[in-house]
Amino acid sequence: MTKSDQLRRHMRSVEAAMRAYARRFGEDEERWGVLGLIHDWDYESGPTAELHPMRGIQMLREKGWPEDILDDIASHADYLNVPRDSNARKALYAVDEMCGFVIACALVKPDKSLGAVEATTVRKKMKDKAFARGVHREELVAGAEVLGVPFDEHVEFVRDALKPIAHELGLTP
Questions:
Q1: Burial of residue 79, with CB atoms counted within 10 A of its CB: 0-12 exposed, 13-18 middle, 19 or more buried
Q2: Exposure string for 89-120, b = 16+ CB within 10 A, e = fewer
Q3: Rounded to two decimals, what is the model's pTM?
Q4: N or C: which end of the chain has fewer CB within 10 A?
């Protein structure tokens, strides 16, 4: 269902960040990785509040996916009001927008280096509303707060989680 390379890279980056946070919190890395990988798989079929992620959740439900996974996916969409009452739900919300923003910051570096992206880089770019317009700045901050991780630490944790897959993302570590 996901045709766009950009969306595939996004989902892969969220998977990597989710796996890293699962390790940090002593949680199930495979389960968290799957959440990151599939959370936006239906996005291209209708990126509206009425359709995403509900269309994909319904399709997964019909295929017999467990309800707890489906609820975790739903939790990343504010408008569905699914409580973020587990570490997995908090992490998915926290890394979804942050992955995209960190990648965007790296892409404008001369060598496209993730290593060159610091928390100060992200804070500076957040002030530029023309930069990465699709990223909701308030969710970058709220995600770290919900997860209970200081913002700068969260930025650098996500950046470091992406380094092992940097080449898949068109970046250098």
A1: exposed
A2: bbbbbbbbbbbbbbbbbbeeeeeeebebbebe
A3: 0.93
A4: N
Residues sharing a CB contact under 8 Å with residue 169, sequence separation 6 or more, in sequence order: 9, 12, 13, 103, 162
In the numeric block, which tokens belong to residue 32? 């968290």
CATH of 5-169, one of 1.10.3210, 1.20.1640, 3.30.450, 1.20.120: 1.10.3210
* Amino acid in position 140: L
CA 124 to the chain's CA centroid: 20
Structure-token pair, residue 132 = 């990465």
Q: What are phi and psi of 6, to 5 degrees?
A: -65, -45
Domains of the chain, residue spans:
5-169
Rounded CA separation 62/60 (Å): 5
Give the tens place of pLDDT for each residue, 86-99.
999 999 999 999 99
8 A C-beta contact, residue 95 and residue 18: yes
Q: Which residue has the tokens 């504010």?
A: 78
